[in-house]
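Chapter summary example: a protein plus nicotinamide-adenine-dinucleotide.
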Amino acid sequence: MKIAGRTFVVSGGASGLGKACVEDIVKAGGHAAVLDMNTEQGESVVRELGSSTRFFVCDVSDTESIGAAVQGIVSWVRDTGKPLGGIIPAAGVGRPGLILDRNLNPLAIDAIDFVININLRGTLDLVRQVLPYLAQSPTDGPDGERGIIVMVASAAAFEGQMGQVAYAASKGAVASMTLPMARDLSRFGIRVVTIAPSMFDSAMTAVMSDKVKQGLKKAMEFPMRAGRPHEFSSLVKQAIENAMLNGVVIRLDGATRMPSKL
Ligand SMILES: NC(=O)c1ccc[n+]([C@@H]2O[C@H](COP(=O)([O-])OP(=O)(O)OC[C@H]3O[C@@H](n4cnc5c(N)ncnc54)[C@H](O)[C@@H]3O)[C@@H](O)[C@H]2O)c1
């Protein structure tokens, strides 16, 4: 479907991969609702990109916070006349921790909840709350498309490394729900695609130590570098525009396969 003239909801849109999607959507003539917990960066994206974007402060692990943001988006869409075209739930966090450490302490349940609540529950809850409105958008093109959901998994969905049990669980679940969600939504003309990136440059990976980065580099085939946020968003753009992409998890990783240890 076309991006121009439609509004896309991007969580985690204030930084990294989500922000690159917001930039590309605006460049293609669309509107982007930027949902993020980081108000300072969210407002800065709107200052940078102008009135085709609107920031909604939102904690995706909090159902009411999503509900308030969705109401704001619905009224913004009503004002602009640019109907909803898709959801890109890109908000995500990592919090490494071994399931059992050398002192026999199991991973804290709070650490597990934190990651699952944002990466998995937050993704599902945002999708769930936007869908009733997306399903009422006017259709586009001869296929009668109403919209698309582009979710963000990770290489850790398939090759989680040591210390990534909670993160891998959250991302594996996102990958697993792609096909059933596509099946549920086909009657509405809504497609579902998930992208599973390897290491990409962003605030999330900027905090990794040089040792970890060098270790990850050894697992890379070609190109031997981290992905760039716009290499991610250009695949999101393709997913939006290519009607045959549906119910699929696409690895975006330059043939990297994560080893057990670095
Ligand atoms: N960068 C990578 O190497 C990489 C690889 C695979 C998958 N991913 C996934 O890509 C997505 C984007 O990550 P990124 O690398 O751009 O990281 P990032 O830290 O640059 O951006 C994540 C954004 O999510 C926001 N966020 C965090 N918790 C939130 C919450 N509870 N509610 C709303 N917003 C919240 C942050 O404020 C931030 O703006 C994540 O789901 C991440 O797991 C990233």
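Key point: The chain has a mean pLDDT of 96.
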